[in-house]
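Sequence only, no structure available. Ideas?
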Amino acid sequence: MIRASKALIVFFTLCCAANLVWAQHSFDLTNVPALKNYQDSLVSITDSMYNATNDQDRFAANAQFIKTMVAALKTNASFNFPFDSLKKVTVLKSPDNALRLISWYVPTDEGSYRFFGTIQMATKDGKLSMFPLIDGTDKIQDVNGVTDNKNWYGARYYQIIPVKFGQQPYYVLMGWKGHNAKTSKKVIEILSFDRTGQPVFGKGVFDGLKGSNPKNRVVFEYNKLNSMTLTMDKSVNMIVFDHLAPFTPDLEGNFEFYASDLSFDAYRIAGGRLKLVENVELKNEPNAMDDFYADPKDKNNKAPKKL
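Reply:
I predicted one. Tokens follow.
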């Protein structure tokens, strides 16, 4: 994983330098051709990265991807360019248009995943600010701990919900985290910013059952061959997710044998907090994100099925 570490250092250095770049807040059409050229290059690099057969080639391509992406983001008005041709990279803009999260992963030979990303901010005066996301999962001993962008509990985010309450708004993020050859993970993360404007991950806003302590983030782990619903359901205005349970009672705590029991729980956003609601009545609809996250290294892998 030496090459992965070098890539992280390069990403952090380039993104810090990009903080000094000035960009127009409105979209500058004159830069569209240049941004499209960058996008074409990024698509080609990601194809090479995910088709690579070993970690060395995979992370070498990822380092090239990082350099090219940072160069693209330094282009004036890049904040409004969608990069929608990057199918293996999520570019997620917040509904309030204040920021966007760019995140992706690199699979490893051992069946785990390394996550990469950045927070791109849009400021009122037009100055473009970016915060690199450095995956610190291996060093995080307490998954409930509050971290920063340099010690990030990495994930590929696919949904963002702004929560405006008081003077310190925050964002609820939902993401796929992967894990290893036997289990997958999903996460509900909280992104906020401290008084100096630095990003903070984790916030004690998750209220469980009566008598339980609030959580800073919620992590789900389940059998890799199964899928899991985790999404904002506008019909009930709640974050809805499958209730995970072991196949048999004696397997409790062994997440390799966890899957949906066909019931749903949810978090209702109220008063700036996320309150647990059990046994929500919903129809279990397929989640396209689950199909997308079949192991990219296995050419014979099919979309995961529920057991």
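Residues 238 and 268 are 5 Å apart (CA to CA).
Hope that gets you unstuck.
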